[in-house]
Write a structure and sequence with these properties.
The structure is a single chain. By secondary structure, this protein is of the alpha/beta class. The protein contains 10 helices and 13 strands. It is globular, with a radius of gyration of 22 Å. It binds guanosine-5'-diphosphate, magnesium ion and zinc ion (ZN).
């Protein structure tokens, strides 16, 4: 079979790990090349983001030209990273105490962005008996890792979870995100134990996001993605699909616009009554649902 030779044959696939000063730094599995963009890419509405998988024409001397951007699987807005596979949502079991409402907002936000959430319960060295129940309740529906950045417990499992994927860390401040990242990425030296005064005052610091390659493959965004957040703008009828335990319970009332609230004969309410869907999760669902409905009234 005759194949038409073209420039495409010389292109190398890589991933943008940093964008800075008009250059795009592309990791091709072996090295990082400083690349410019082919002209037509510069004028696209959709910017090339860190995390984008690209086709690059290498240039002698180690540089390259980005010729094409491969289709994105996802794009986060803050931080602006494309193709994030998973969000490691870190909460400490103590100091500070976990805030389930905030955790649920992270989970729903990740689902909305098409990003797989992994819950990391840190500071297990400080844990009290009563929190074991909390951990196991999330285990039913989510990938959960229990860690201590102090004793090292669970961190190898966390490392395996990051393998081959693009991950961002998220979670409130003080839970141990930086300590964990420092452990996983030798030489990173993130500041720990202090709450940034600038972040507290609500100002955004200009920060260049960078993907750090992990020794076993995969990348971690060098800065925690988001630390506190509002419930995103979700259509009330789409909310149930973002709760895996409720959304996986695909039954007839999903096709009739049922909000699983006051509707008679709702099969989700039935499942809750029969103990097939956890009551706390259902209450959380109703709490978010009423917030979303209230928003639409104004
Ligand atoms: N006991 C205990 N302390 C931890 C653990 N992980 C982090 N810390 C401490 O918690 C504080 C906040 O950690 P930091 O990594 O800065 O949290 P971040 O705000 O989420 O980045 C620091 O004083 C850490 O030493 C842990 O697993 N156990
Ligand atoms: Mg930190
Ligand atoms: Zn229903």
């Amino acid at each position: 079979m005759n194949r038409v030779l073209s420039n495409q044959d010389k292109l190398i696939e890589g991933i943008v790990v940093k964008a800075y000063g008009g250059y795009f730094y592309v990791h091709d599995g072996l090295s990082v090349r400083e690349c410019t963009l082919r002209g037509r890419l510069r004028y696209r509405k959709q910017q090339v983001l860190v995390g984008d998988r690209v086709l690059m024409a290498p240039v002698q001397g180690g540089g390259g030209v980005v010729e094409d951007v491969l289709p994105r699987c996802s794009a986060l807005i803050r931080p602006a990273v494309a193709n994030v596979d998973q969000a490691i949502i870190v909460f400490s079991l103590r100091d500070p105490e976990p805030n389930p409402g905030l955790l649920e907002r992270f989970l729903v936000t990740a689902a909305l962005n098409g990003i797989e959430p992994v819950i990391c319960f840190n500071k297990v060295d400080l844990t009290a008996e009563r929190q074991i129940e909390l951990v196991s309740s999330y285990r039913e529906n989510y990938n959960v890792v229990v860690t201590s950045a102090k004793t090292g417990k669970g961190l190898n499992l966390l490392r395996k979870t990051l393998n081959g994927k693009i991950s961002v860390f998220a979670g409130p401040s003080g839970v141990g995100k930086s300590t964990i990242l420092n452990f996983l990425i030798p030489g990173l030296k993130q500041k720990t134990g202090e709450v940034s005064a600038r972040l507290k005052s609500g100002k955004h610091t200009t920060r260049y996001i960078e993907l750090i390659p992990l020794a076993d493959g995969g990348f971690v965004a060098d800065t925690p993605g988001f630390s506190s957040l509002d419930l995103p703008d979700i259509k009330p009828e789409e909310l149930a699909g973002l709760f895996p335990d409720i959304g996986n319970y695909q039954t007839s009332c999903f096709f009739t616009g049922c909000l699983h609230y006051k509707e008679p004969g709702c099969s989700i309410k039935e499942a809750v009554e029969q103990g097939k869907i956890g009551e706390a999760r259902y209450r959380q669902y109703l709490d978010f649902l009423t917030q979303l409905i209230d928003r639409r009234k104004y």
